[in-house]
């Protein structure tokens, strides 16, 4: 968690868990983006995963350039690619 003036401005947490694999999810308030808040919380989360013997897993769409760039910065790499299908429901 990142805090500024007693306000939570960013979080990194396990979006889902399967055995020892934890999916990395980051949320940063809009006004705090591009200020390295995501980097700080991701680094802390991944270090805690290492300390506890947990395998962090990063999953995001190719279009999410910022998230992909941050994942590479954290030492994560692409494990596989899969298609996503969107449906419009009237």
UniProtKB/TrEMBL annotation:
<dbReference type="Pfam" id="PF12746">
    <property type="entry name" value="GNAT_acetyltran"/>
</dbReference>
<feature type="domain" description="N-acetyltransferase">
    <location>
        <begin position="1"/>
        <end position="90"/>
    </location>
</feature>
<protein>
    <submittedName>
        <fullName>GNAT family N-acetyltransferase</fullName>
        <ecNumber>2.3.1.-</ecNumber>
    </submittedName>
</protein>
<dbReference type="GO" id="GO:0016746">
    <property type="term" value="F:acyltransferase activity"/>
</dbReference>
<dbReference type="InterPro" id="IPR000182">
    <property type="entry name" value="GNAT_dom"/>
</dbReference>
<dbReference type="InterPro" id="IPR027365">
    <property type="entry name" value="GNAT_acetyltra_YdfB-like"/>
</dbReference>
<dbReference type="InterPro" id="IPR016181">
    <property type="entry name" value="Acyl_CoA_acyltransferase"/>
</dbReference>
<keyword id="KW-0012">Acyltransferase</keyword>
<keyword id="KW-0808">Transferase</keyword>
